[in-house]
Amino acid sequence: MLTCVRGLLAALAFWMALPASAQPSSLLPVPSSMRLADGRLTIDSTTRFEIAGFADARLRRAVERAQSRLAQRISQPVTGAARDTARVPAARAITIDVAGAGMTVQGIEEVEGYSLVITSQGATLRSATVVGALRGLETMLQLVEGDGGSFFLPSLEIHDAPRFPWRGLLVDVSRHFMPLEQLKRTLDGMALVKLNVFHWHLSDDQGFRVESRRFPLLHQRGSDGLFYTQAQVREIVAYARDRGIRVVPEFDMPGHTTAWFVGYPQYATKAPPIAIRREWGGADAIFDPTREETYTFIAQFIAEMVPLFPDPYWHIGGDEVEAKHWDGNARIVAWRTRHGYKDNAALQAHFNRRLSAILVRHGKRMIGWDEILHPDLPAKTVVQSWRGVQYLANSARQGFAALLSAPWYLDYMKPASDYYTVDPVPQFDELTPAQRALVLGGEACMWAEFVSDETAESRIWPRLGAVAERLWSPREVTDVAEMYRRLDILADRLEGMGVRVGSHSARLLARIAPGVETAPIESLFTAVQPPRFGQATNGRSTNQLHPLTRLVDAARPDPAGRWMIERLVRRLALDPQDVAARDSLLVVFERWSLLLPRVEALAATSPTLAEALPVARALARTAVIGTEAVGFVTAGRVAPADWARAAAEELRRYEAPQGTLRVAIVADVRKLLAMASAQPATSDGR
Amino acid sequence: MLTCVRGLLAALAFWMALPASAQPSSLLPVPSSMRLADGRLTIDSTTRFEIAGFADARLRRAVERAQSRLAQRISQPVTGAARDTARVPAARAITIDVAGAGMTVQGIEEVEGYSLVITSQGATLRSATVVGALRGLETMLQLVEGDGGSFFLPSLEIHDAPRFPWRGLLVDVSRHFMPLEQLKRTLDGMALVKLNVFHWHLSDDQGFRVESRRFPLLHQRGSDGLFYTQAQVREIVAYARDRGIRVVPEFDMPGHTTAWFVGYPQYATKAPPIAIRREWGGADAIFDPTREETYTFIAQFIAEMVPLFPDPYWHIGGDEVEAKHWDGNARIVAWRTRHGYKDNAALQAHFNRRLSAILVRHGKRMIGWDEILHPDLPAKTVVQSWRGVQYLANSARQGFAALLSAPWYLDYMKPASDYYTVDPVPQFDELTPAQRALVLGGEACMWAEFVSDETAESRIWPRLGAVAERLWSPREVTDVAEMYRRLDILADRLEGMGVRVGSHSARLLARIAPGVETAPIESLFTAVQPPRFGQATNGRSTNQLHPLTRLVDAARPDPAGRWMIERLVRRLALDPQDVAARDSLLVVFERWSLLLPRVEALAATSPTLAEALPVARALARTAVIGTEAVGFVTAGRVAPADWARAAAEELRRYEAPQGTLRVAIVADVRKLLAMASAQPATSDGR
Fold this sequence. Notes:
homodimer, alpha/beta, Chitobiase, domain 2, TIM Barrel, 3 domains, 14% strand
């Protein structure tokens, strides 16, 4: 499918991928240090993997997986694979030399660095731990190149280690359930880009997703039958550990807990609804923090869950507790006053201290969303910022370890470049070195109100690669063009592993319009995208039970055409006489404007396809304005003020979603408009 | 991906899909009788499913699935779905009225007919059995259409029942293991086209795929760890039953049994190899039919398996037993002589009678491949023809029930039209009515030497739809153009359900060349295809352990361009002055010939992509010859004899695979050549 989109764009002359061997490294994330040398190590069916140092079952499984992936990559058997018993020469081996197992339970102190030396005689991967070797194997697999005659690894020397110890992805499985196989694909992808924390958001108002034997009504009444058995939880934790990924569970409390109360209403601040909440946002009832029974229940629940989740950290949520939840209950207000808590924040801090005490008994450190930040918070708590970047610094200044998530919400549908240019520890912040050291890293978040198991991967990837690189690579690695080039390769690597980065589009379109030629819609998808979370949804359903099988679901965030236009506009800004950039812009704009009649024809055949009409009209108009602006810019003429005003006004409208979709290139056409309206800098005969 | 291929072809002006609503019915298979009426039943979120008559859990699950699929199709919730409790009006309901459960264990006598009446007021589906309702629900889902305002079902009346009671697909899971999820997708697809037998080829020389507790070395040593647990077997059987599909197990014997002997060598005719056979073809050792221990072992094994497979039929294989297996063992030859069996066929008949006796004790009827046909065969045995169509008639003439498979081997990579034009009971055969009644139907066969779990579906679909229609629809339904039109829609329906009809191409290409623009290869795949089983493989691996991740695996059988060219050539044959057909042919031929330099550029970047070179050259040359032939035909000139001879010779070479792939349009260009070489019939001034 990604190939397909590129195919569409490839019809435009300017779009050309260099052959892999002529390109700079495709590594993502970029390693700490890399030195290329002359020569290459040929890779073929005589290539052999050897484990030279420490070995345990986890390392052996990892090497087997690497062998199998290498075999698939080069379409030849790779000797040394478990089931192949043929004899091979010892030359040209890929040697894995590990010093030891690493931590029994992987923690943030785990050593993840490695070195990789490749010569024409062989490759050697060295690491202190098995996790380090896992990281190095991923690097090695990304280095495979080919020419007409053979596959090879380039000679080089890499010394690599992560910048931050906490590099995560949150997946919300409550709003929409994500099946086991999809989680495994996501873990595979995370391993590919060296992420190391899977933050599993397991409960919320719309679903409780883990089997509880102690309190079976939790999953029986709170999940629609869509939950993970305890065996499946263990399976995911083991799968993640095999890939050097920690699993941090989140059971969000005291709010976001409606699904708990369908089975156990007695712990709620008020009588909850009798069914799972289907609409998004705003819980009805939350945990009652004033009753001892609440803590007994939570303690028993946590005691049951602890053996499933060996990670030293435990996420308690803690977000979006609103005054109405407690102020609306006279008994709670009275209790709060009686116990001398001056406000609800202090009451929540009380709740959190109680939780922390329970977790400490199990040897767990507590994490929560930034609302939990309070002077009374236990000192070892970790605070995860989501409401704004400032909470990261606030937490660090108050002495709490902190994680960045605020700018990395994937449901905000921002371009990868936006996610990429955020730094958890900017070079010129106001923190002391000690405070900076409290910033452990961060997590991208895939909240699932508007994604299903069919579409989640297309929202996670490839943009998550940008976050992964930010968290792993040196601060100085910031070239956006370079990032997009490698993100494109990453998308193919992921699809090749089975991750549904872009292939969901074809599947959804096939279902929406079986037998119908939907190429115009696919072309549309190069320039339009879903709205961001919270944006006017214009008729989009806000109910969990409504199928996510519309055009907005088939579309992708940060579509390929956006970055293409941004690049071309930049070139034109640098040199208004750049004829190639001008012609490319004109061709693409024309193509997009000509989509409209084709989309109109399709819209007459299906209400679902008709969803494309408003955004196709807006795209056509945006493209026309872009075309006119390019005309002024390249002619060195200042656009008439009336035209510019009208165009600006029209573009402003297109910043909002048009129906359920929005045009992705509005900002760049606005830049063109600004260029067309400004006094030309060089061509006015000065 | 299919959309993508159509996208590529869509660039050619002649290729246009009508909007769904303007088209004739897209039903596949065509029902026995259908009468369209005026009017339509609007389908939206107020549409309600009602079960009016008999109901059991199987029917309820089926209706829930239908509701969910309808909801996904129209991208709106469909009321009545299990988890939606909203109240709805009773008008415009889809009523399911079933008389009874049907057979406790589905057999060939199961009543599968149904009627479906749709008016603007509602739809009513009536059937005698739950299986009949399953068939009718599939029909109903295929009937959904849309216009710009709403979705609807057309008013009509359908009375439908199958022509043959046995309509199957064999899937070989031995040569390459097929995971549970893939089998489920295949069963979903089978239900869509109303097939009713899943023939599960569970053991062969290259793998024994079922857990045996009685004889655990069977799966422990015979499967590389790739086997189905007994729980998983039950899961598949239940999944199939829910879709009205019988599961017929095949444990092939006495030959094709190397994998058995890795754990239990004592029952073999000779010392077998110590490992699973990896190369294709020709077993080394087979069951020894002269020793009582063999039958004790088989009887105990079958006794363990019988509870897993409730179907009344049991497939014993029986194919490819060669003289060398028995003649090479002096003790067996002596035994055969001593017992008065005149040849090995008689000895195999002895073996089969012993097997039959074991099966009869369990209430099972025996099926086997056509080699088992022998006068001594028990009368109720069913014979499955694979070596040639004649064995079907032979079996029926000898009084045996029979199944057709010979022309329906999917690994022969024939075009769908070839599979479609076969009739198990041709109108003018020499059988008596009683003999004809012995023809139960047939099975398409997906042997798995050259397919993996990643590619099998692309070989099964959409061509299996042609076989399904042949077995279900009236004999008179034979229009190939109509079939291809509906097969194209079927492919999208299947992809929309998750079946990997064409989407494997994008995945494999992404892995073969991450980040590389592979549009030229995708264009190539519109006109080239994998070789058929048994054709010179030109360097293709014949070893089970070699990865099936090459271009030949990413390609598809019966590519879209083949039928396109066949249609255009037919038009030109009817009217050499058909300008549109001429222009279309010339445009497509030019496009294919221009692929060569682009493929050459790609070939320099990867040995895997270089695999495309020889076939790209052959396609370019074939296209050039086609262009020249079109020139002669449309100009009304007879081609010079020298040119025609050279062209014919060249085309003959291109009938063979070029490297691992072969050109799919050679036969049609040969037709053009014949037209160009013949005296023109109408334009010679006569």
